[in-house]
Amino acid sequence: MGDVYARLAELGLQIPPVVPPVAAYVPAVQTGNHVYVSGQLPMVDGALSATGLVGADVSPEEAKELARRSAVNVLAAVEALVGLGRVAKVVKIVGFVASAPGFTGQPAVVNGASELFGEVFGDAGKHARSAVGVAALPLNAPVEIEAILELA
Predict the structure, then answer these.
(1) In terms of Cα–Cα distance, which of 77, 95, 85 is closest to 30?
(2) How does strand 43-44 pair with strand 128-134?
(3) CA distance 98 to 140
């Protein structure tokens, strides 16, 4: 995988502070050699980047970028808990897409997160995943990404 921090620098990505929970949970927990990251929204500086349903209020292309932003927030939660340098493998992600009726492009939206993990971790970023369309998400967010990662 190489040095994840060098890769982040090459990509021009800065890991933000961990997003504070919006309810009664923690951003991430470690058990054994795994980290389970709670669903992360596309928050920037404490505010959602966009709101609404994908396919109506938010374009699929914008939603893909929002999924990428949510994935950056996944990385922030891992960094705050154990440090990204300890990640051996992205095991699984689940992407939730607040979808307008008839919208079926959830896999392409969640690619924003999947592609980011591949860029950051290389082969160790290849993962199992689910891309799920839902009626609504917390705070009217268009996307939410959760993850399970294995530690070295």
Answers:
(1) 77
(2) unpaired
(3) 8
Instruction: Give the Cα separation of 110 and 68 in Å (integer).
Output: 8
3-state helix, strand, coil in the chain (%, to 5): 35, 30, 35
Q: Return the domain boundaries, the chain.
A: 4-16+27-151
Whole-model pTM: value is: 0.96
CA distance 68 to 117: 9
| Record: fold of 4-16+27-151 | 60s Ribosomal Protein L30; Chain: A; (3.30.1330)
Bridge partners of 133, per DSSP, are 97
Kindly state the tokens that stand for 91. 């095991």
- Amino acid in the structure at residue 14: Q
What pLDDT does residue 1 have? 47
**Helix residue ranges per DSSP H, the chain:** 4-11, 60-81, 106-121
For residue 45, the model assigns a pLDDT of 93
